Amino acid sequence: MKATKETNQRQTAPPPPPHRHHHPNRREPPTLTPEPWLVYTHEKKIKSQTFYSSSEQRSHFRNFHKMRNRLICAHCQCWLLLVHINKRDFSLFNPATMEEVQLPRMPRILDSFDSCAVSSPPNNDDCCIVVLIEYCYLKKQSTLFFCKPGDDDDDKGWRKQRVEPEEGQCGNPHASHLSYFQNVASFNGDLYVVAACCESLLKVQFVIDDNGDTSIKLLDLKLRRPNLNWADPYFVRTTLMSSSFLIQASPTELMTVELYYGDQRDTVEYSYEICRIEGFEAGVIRIELYRANFEEEKWEHVEELPKDTAIFLGFLQDNVVSYEVPSRQDLDRGGGVSSREHGVLHVSVVVYDPRLNLSQQLELLGSTGS
């Protein structure tokens, strides 16, 4: 009887408490609002994701199996371009509908790639993905990999094309250490790249020959990169490095964002650390925005962002999102972004460093989680 009583007690014992990280909705998408969301991955082996809503001013933590062990390297509307940590498996994932589109497997492991972009959603027949991998210094070439959803066989998988600058095109005296292509961006269904050696904006065109083979042609739009003030001794002394981001800032605007990093000992005012360079604490010392004017073939300096607009920049081109918030009050209250004044330019920027842990990210965003 005693053993039976103990058995009954064990059978009726309450279940153990749930794991402290358990959340009933971790595998369901958050209720989406009309404005875009800031999405990034974190934790060991990239198991979890954070969806930040500016309208709610809070972060929603999720654990989507289809995003596990994957990095977000580009986006188009609600679709995220994901790459596995093995750097060979790519897919398109829509966190709003949980739809997934597998892309062909990369024929070889990519050591790294500069940037990538999706021209349009996968349900569009013209959707195409372009991946720019590292620059070959010996051959002075960049290699473009591109494909379309549904291209699964060997003949129509990832296709590659090497592109090198035309004779006399390189007009940048500092370009010997730069990649031929700096980054790629999607704008109104078209893809654009910036050629570092000639500092010009190029439009990516896909040409189909008589045999049905697709190749890439780059159209020079004659938009030269704005001249940098390298003649300023103070600017040269304090600037350790720079990053350039090509983004679609609005349905009608293609912009480039130039970030300049310097030693924090010379830039106490902007002490936000984002990287370390040879022992220096490097922070943002200057931000420049330029808008592409296709009609006049020039970049126009942007003195101030449009009302209720913020730009989220991914660290080293990992992810770039142009982000509209509901009202200026959200920015005044913080709105999850770090608002600063850089001269006459009023810009709200979050630079996401993947080396920061989750608590540091939340402190940076100033938001609460759910």
From TrEMBL:
Ranges where the KIB1-4 beta-propeller domain occurs: 51-315
Matching InterPro entries: KIB1-4_b-propeller
Residues covered by region (Disordered): 1-34
Domain of life: Eukaryota
Listed PANTHER family: DUF295 DOMAIN-CONTAINING PROTEIN (PTHR40891:SF1)
Protein name: KIB1-4 beta-propeller domain-containing protein
Species in which this protein is naturally found: Linum trigynum
